[in-house]
Amino acid sequence: MDRRQFLLLGATAAGVSACHAFPGLEIPVRVDMPGMALGHQLRDAHAWPAATEHRDVDTLILGSGVAGLTAAWQLQKHDYRNYLLLSGPEPLGNTAYGDAGRGLRYPKGAHYLPFPTRSSTHVRELLADMGVLVSGEHESHPYYDEAAILHAPDERIWADGKWSPGVIAPVAAHSESARQQARFFRWVEQLKTQKGSDGLRLFDIPLVLSSQDDDWRRLDMMPFSRWLDQQGYTDSALRAYLDYACRDDYGAGCTHVSAWAGLHYFACRDGHASNGADGGLLTWPEGLGRLTQWMYNRLPAANVMAGSAIRIQEGQHNVTVDVLAGKTRMTIAARRVICAMPLHVLKHLVSLSDYGFDVPQQMPPHAPWLVTNLVLQGFPPEKDGEPLAWDNVRAGSDGLGYVVATHQWIREAMPERTVFTAYRNLPQFSPDAARKWLLAAKPADLFDAAMVDLDEVYGRPRLWRHAQYAEITVRGHAMATPAVGFLHNAGLAALRKQDGRLLFAHSDLSGLSLFEEASWWGYQAAQKILG
Ligand SMILES: Cc1cc2nc3c(=O)[nH]c(=O)nc-3n(C[C@H](O)[C@H](O)[C@H](O)COP(=O)(O)OP(=O)(O)OC[C@H]3O[C@@H](n4cnc5c(N)ncnc54)[C@H](O)[C@@H]3O)c2cc1C
Which residues contact 337 (CB under 8 A, 6 or more apart)? Predict the structure, then answer.
C-alpha cells in the first residue's frame, strides 16, 4: 500500500462509531458486534415503542441461524407454508459471511464441516438436497462434490520460526513425546467405533445419540486436563495441541472443558467419503454460510421477516410475540413458536423457569470470540517459499491461527486477491471478564489481539503492502462451552424435551456449538410441527 497513514475505523452493528489514526500505515478496519445493541437493550429493560401492527401465523421461528433455517427448510420441504421466520439481529447467525466483491467471500464465524457421521442423517439430507453429497446418502462412504472437499495442503504449524505440516509441533522420532502422541491417537481412534452397554456409540454426533453408559458419562464430572494427567498424557506438545483443539471447538481450554467433551471432540467424528480420506472436511470460501445461505434462498420472501423478538408470552390458545421491525413494534400471534435464538438472549424474553430451565444455575458459560478478516491484494511472501495451507496455526499461541478463503479456488494462477480469516478467543480471561475487556478495549487493542498470529508469522510491514482493509467481528457470547458437568445439565434436557406451544432449537441445547448440533435441534423442532 502506498498510503502513509493507518486508519482504524471502529464500527458497531449500528454503524461507524470511532476513527483512530496510527502514523506510518493506513488500512481501514471495521469492527462489528452483531446482536450486541439489541442484547444490551433487552438486558437493561429498554423502553420500547407501543405496538402498532398485528399479525397471525401458525408457526413463528425466532432466529435465522443454523437451527432456525434448518427448521424452515424442513417445513418448506414438506409443503408446510403457514410459517414465518424472524431473522433477528444477525441473519445466518454464527455462519454469517462477508463479501469483498468480485466473488471473494469470507467467513465471519463457522468455516468447516467434517464428513458427516452415519447418525448425522439430518446433515446428510441437507447436503444431498444441495447436491454437495452427490450419491450414497445412506451409505457409510458417500460421494461428495470434489470442489467442497478440503484439498492439500490443508494445515501447517509455525514453530521455532518455521512451518511444518500438521497442527502439532514436530517432536523427535522415538521420543517420549512421540510415544505419548501415538498412544493418544490410537486410543481415540479406537473410541470412534466403541459402543457402550446400551449398544450406542460412546461418542456420537449429534451428541444426544451418544451412549448413556454411566461408566463413560462419568468422565463429564472431571476436567479434561485431570483425565489427561491421570492417563499420563503429560507431553507439552501434545497438551498444547489438545488445548488448542478445545479452544478451537469449545472456546475454552482443557482445564475448563469436561473430559467427556474433550474425548467427544476426537471420537465423535467418524464420517467417511468414497472420494476423500478419512478425517476429511467440507469447506467453502464463505465457510458454512454456504449451507445456511442455501437454506435461506429456498424460503419465499413472504415467509421471512427482518426484525427481532423482544417479548414472548404463552397464552391458553396461542403465543404472543412482541417484535421490533426497524422502528415499528408489532405483535405476532402464533399457534407455536420455535425459539432458535441463543439462551442468553431468550432469558430476557420469557421466563425459562416455566420450561424447566433455571437461568442462574443452568446457563452454560458462553465464550467470546474475535473473527478478523484481512482482505489482501496479492499474497504476502511465505518464509522459505513454504506453500500456504488452508489452516495455518502457530505453536504456543493464544490465537487459533488463520484460514485462507481462496484455498478451494482451483486455478492455474494464484488469485489476485484473497482473505485471511484469523480466529481467536481470550482464554486468559473468564467469559465475563473477557466480555468486559472487549467492551472497554480500544479498537487498536482489539486489532492487536486479533493480529497475534499474523503479526508473528509475517510482520505488519510485509502484510501491509498487501492489506486493503480488515473487518473484526466481535462475538461476545459466541458459543456455549461444555464445562465440567455440562452433559448432566437437567435444564437443557428439559428444554430439549418441550413439545408444547413453545419449542426450543439452538446449538445451546447441546451445551456445545457445532453445525450438526444446531441443525439437529432445528430439524427436531420442525418434525414436532409436522407431526
Ligand atoms: C467463531 C466461530 C467459529 C465456528 N466454527 C465452526 C466450524 O468451523 N464448524 C462448526 O460445525 N461449527 C462452528 N461453529 C459453531 C457454529 O457456528 C454454531 O454451532 C452454529 O452456527 C449455531 O447456530 P444456531 O442456529 O444454534 O445459533 P446462532 O448462530 O447463535 O443464531 C441465532 C439466531 O438468532 C437470532 N436472534 C438473536 N436474538 C434474536 C431475537 N431477539 N429475535 C429473533 N432472533 C434473534 C440471530 O439473529 C441469529 O440469526 C463456530 C462458531 C463460532 C462462533
Answer: 59, 60, 61, 62, 312, 319, 321, 501, 502, 503
Please tell me the pTM assigned to this model.
Answer: 0.95
Q: Is the CB of 258 under 6 A from ligand 1?
A: no
Q: Which atom of ligand 1 is nearest to the CA of 310?
A: 41
- Answer yes or no: is the C-beta of 61 below 6 A from any ligand 1 atom: no
Confidence (pLDDT) at 94: 98
476 CB near ligand 1 (under 6 Å)? no
- 418 torsion bin: left (phi>0), alpha (psi -120 to 50), beta (else): beta
Compute how many other C-beta atoms are within 10 angstroms of the C-beta atom of residue 200.
15
Closest CA to 251 of 476, 493, 438, 496: 476
Q: Which three cell numbers, joined as nine digits, stand for 90?
A: 444477525
User: Domains along the chain?
Assistant: 3-32+366-480 (3.90.660), 39-96+285-358+484-530 (3.50.50.60), 174-277 (1.10.405)
What is the predicted pLDDT for the residue at 257? 97
The pLDDT, as a whole number, for residue 21 is 44
- Which atom from ligand 1 is nearest to the alpha carbon of 309? 42
Query: C-alpha cell of 16?
Result: 461507524
Q: Which of 94, 264, 369 to mutate to test the pocket of ligand 1 (most atoms within 8 A of CB)?
A: 94
- Cα(345) to centroid of ligand 1, in Å? 12
Pick from 207, 233, 201: nearest CA to 220: 207
Instruction: Check: CB of residue 108 under 8 Å from CB of residue 98.
Output: yes
> Ligand 1 centroid to 123 CA: how many Å?
16
CA proximity to 10, closest of 38, 29, 26: 29
Ligand 1 contact, 67 CB (< 6 A): yes
- Closest-CA residue, ligand 1 atom 35, reads 63
3-state secondary structure 292-329: HHHHHHHCCHHHEECCEEEEEEECCCCEEEEEEECCEE
* pLDDT attached to residue 11: 36
Largest Cα–Cα distance of the chain, in whole Å?
73
Q: What is the pLDDT of residues 3-56, one digit of tens each?
A: 323 333 433 333 333 434 444 446 888 999 999 999 999 999 778 999 999 999
What is the structure's pLDDT at 26? 64
Q: Which residues pair with 404 in a beta bridge?
A: 420
Output the nine-digit C-alpha cell for 43.
438486558
Low-confidence ranges of the chain (pLDDT < 50): 1-25
Give the torsion sign (CA, 370, 374, 375, 378). Answer: negative
Nearest residue to 92 (alpha-carbon basis) of 114, 74, 110? 110
- Ligand 1 centre to CA of 508 (Å) is 9
From residue 469, alpha-carbon distances to 101, 153, 402, 466 in Å are 13, 26, 16, 9
Distance separating alpha carbons of residues 250 and 475, to the nearest angstrom: 14
Closest CA to 31 of 445, 527, 464: 445
Residues 6+ away with beta carbon under 8 Å from 142: 115, 124, 133, 134, 135, 136, 273, 274
